[in-house]
Amino acid sequence: MTLRTPYYLIDKQALLPNLEKIARLRELSGAKSLLALKCFASWSVFELMSEYMDGTTSSSPFEVKLGRNHFPGETHAYSVAWDEADMAEVLANSDKIIFNTIGQLERFGEAARDHVRGLRVNPGISSSSFDIADPARPFSRLGEHDPARIETVCDRVSGFMFHNNCENRDFDRFDAMLGEIEGRFGHLISRMEWISLGGGIHFTGAGYPLEKLAERLKRFSQDHGVQVYLEPGEAAITNSTTLELTVLDTLDNGKNLAIVDSSIEAHMLDLLIYRESAKVAPNAGDHEWMVCGNSCLAGDIFGEFRFEQPLKPGDRVSIRDAAGYTMVKKNWFNGVRMPAIAVRELDGTVRTVREFGYGDFEAALS
Fold this sequence. Notes:
Layout: E1 7-11, H1 12-29, E2 32-36, H2 46-49, E3 55-57, H3 61-70, E4 74-78, H4 87-92, E5 96-99, H5 102-108, E6 116-120, H6 147-151, E7 159-161, H7 171-189, E8 194-196, H8 210-224, E9 227-230, H9 234-237, E10 241-252, E11 256-260, H10 264-267, H11 269-274, E12 279-280, E13 287-292, E14 301-307, E15 316-320, E16 340-344, E17 350-354, H12 358-363
Parallel strand pairs: 1-16, 2-3, 2-9, 3-4, 4-5, 5-6, 6-7, 7-8, 8-9, 11-13
Antiparallel strand pairs: 1-10, 10-11, 10-15, 12-15, 13-14, 16-17
């Protein structure tokens, strides 16, 4: 394949191990799995993913419609705040609608009277180490927190969504938090038909005790008589995608610097938001280089990595794990060329599924 860099390369063979673990957890626990489109919405691989998952969950009307149009199975509609102008289309394209607050339930409950309705509940605990990503941060707007207030609307909903995990790789921490949720909200949970425990549980990671998680989910389901849903995002696509780059220029300013044809602000925004380094493999060798983006932002830096040989213009650099919260956040900052999207099929062939040009840049503005 001859494809100009930069481009995202989704590898189905690398995607499969995550999907197989999701399927295994479904089999052992009885929990259903919905892809969180806020993390990954590249619908070119949805046909494969739908063989291992039960549907999608959303954060906006556009994501609801994307899930309904491209991912077989259930379509759950959630938003921090619904707009009345979108309500008819959201209901037409979803199986369940989840309200963030009782105020939203009261405002749109009549319009959704023939729909399966749920409410987001904020238990006030989380596993997040980043305040910006912590749903239980002080004064959080994400969900209702008062059991007494929630009890007044239990007859208007059939399920709750608890989304309080964030990159949680610790089963014991998950187990303890779920116990706290049961202690505070268990009497209300048992009145429901279904419960979503959200995403952020990194159960596809190496060494995660999948069987323990399955047993805990199954016990939770049986104790409360509910269908459990999980909403994996990162867990579904971790290590499946690379961002392929080319070195454009090099210089020495006390360190070896290599400028590539991409930008973290435009193409890997989470690195900038969370001040984290990109991943390069094998990241070994005698030559250390700082890989820098080609935007005007002074801090547009992918990170510092080691290579077997000094970098030079024309060399390729492959950034690992470039799917979750990356492709969905790409933008046109500085007018930097938008990465194309390619898919490596299970048989090893690579096909280009989307390229972007000046017309796309122009159309995004006015």
